[in-house]
What does this fold into?
Amino acid sequence: MDSSRSYYTLCLLYLLLAAPLMAQTPYNLDIFKLATQEKKNFSGNFSALQNTSPFIDLIYARAEWQLNPSIRYIQGKVTYYFKALHFQTDTLSFDLNNALQIDSISQDNVPITYTHTNNVLKISTRLLSPENIDSVSICYQGIPPNSGFGSFSQGQTPGGLPVMWTLSEPYGAADWWPTRLNLGEKLDSIDMIIHTPVGFLASGNGILATTYSGNNGIYHHWKHRHPIATYLIGTSIAPFIALTNLVQLRTALLPVVNYVYPENEQQWRDAAQYERQMLQFYDSLLIPYPFSDEKYGHAQFGWGGGMEHQTMSSMSDPGEGLMAHELAHQWFGNHVTCGSWSDIWLNEGFATYFTGVYYERFFPQDFKAWKQAQTSNILQQAGGSVFVYDTSQVGQIFDGRLSYAKGAMVLHMLRKQIGDNAFFGSLRHYLSTDGIAGASARTSDLIHILEEQSGQSLQNFFDDWIFGQGYPKITVSQQRFPDGIISINCAQTASMPNNGPYQVRIPLYLKWPSGDTLIHIQLNDESSNTWLQLPISNTEIISITPDPESDLIALFELVEGDPIAPHPEFTVVPNPSTGELFIQFPHYTGLPNQVELFNLTGQSILTYPPVLNSDGLLQIMPFQKPSSGAYFLRFHYDSHKEVVRFMFISH
It folds into this structure.
């Protein structure tokens, strides 16, 4: 789900992205604020929904609805085909708001008994056995309530003609039809037969099998033959103009069908170019478009954003960023659906990030600004986890700062950690794995696949960034010494108590008048100190830019370096040595010109150029196996020499 990137309005759902880019940017990155009032409105309507019948598998639904955009009313008949799982049972349950009235329920045209209380419809069927497929038909009608983000809504076209639409995410499907709100199960297929007045079109999932006249109106028969979660089933009804294009993908010539308001026809025709571009891009980068045997498309609706109804996203306008987000959902959210609302980031974090990946590919000059917008949003508050621990609050599920922006940037950091090949390869595997493809996934499933494909242990990463709260506040300081020796210290504190330290690899861009370099510091604990020797004069000033490409979720601060006590004298470690030596030395003296090894008789054995390692030590590589005994190292400076004795033990 997404909000419009074209209208500077509050949306009911989404990520707060930051200020717009420069005027010439082909999209804008701002708004997408959660509307507090809508959260409260939804919370007031939330009840004990998500009822499940654990021993029943719903296979297929045939939904017949009579809808008139001018009248807030629904009359419908929904026939479910199902079978029992493992056990014999005689009870079938659905979620259905009590505002809707049951006219009759039948099994093989024989009326059967039911109860409808507390928004739960319980049907007493004949005894069901696991071997048999059976069906029930539910006839109902009434005025649907309007919970969540507008589960059943009316509006007008810009020209004042009536429109109607549905938006069921997360718990709103039961406001307008008997269904099951459990994310862990999907229907295998569905037919939608929608009766509207003459002059209206009704959008739907899958392909439009036929339209025909009857009962003073038009029937629109949509047929969808892929697994689908109930919240992804939806329709929009308006005096639409239907625009159809064909887009060549890897494995199919895909029909793209857009149902648009007449007043906005040209705007949608102009969008066809980038619509084709993003379809081909995602199709080539990920697995082939999952519903290529049917269609993709958009149906315009009156909500200020977008909703990823399977194969036909509902859209307020053809904004490029909005379109990229909802299209990415066809892979992440529709083909693979989060198995729990706790894991909503598997839908929204992915769709948000792949909007960014689209920008990276086609607007690379703006990708950094896109990342900065996400991070600016994340850093507005100290706490909160991407994983949703309380799914009764819609505001926590659809938290733009966490489920969207932070989820997206966590994916970007993961990509930087394991590399592009492992990252995109893992996601293709995730989208095609048996039991996940066409079904649902939890965060643990994603972790397993990423670890398997990358060869890295990632549990700590996910504990820090998905299950844990907050982010690191990192101070960066430098201490200068002669001969280009510089000590850089990175220290972190967590934005929330009992979180961290975070394991993060920090890129630092160092620049001085005669040159520059990029280094990386791995910070696993509260602080890390790194020593460098740079080809700079003692008078040149070094500027440090942390995270120059805005790849990290972190708050950085540059501070003056604390005094570092230089080693008071030359010391060899280890001593005795078996080969490799490290020499602590007073850094205020600068580097010696040369290091010389000689024996007790004063015979010079080897000379070494001084090499500074990342711990600020002079590093002497293994000898050519001298005999065991006492040796000396002489450090040559312009004005003096220093000598230190050590023992060598030969194996």
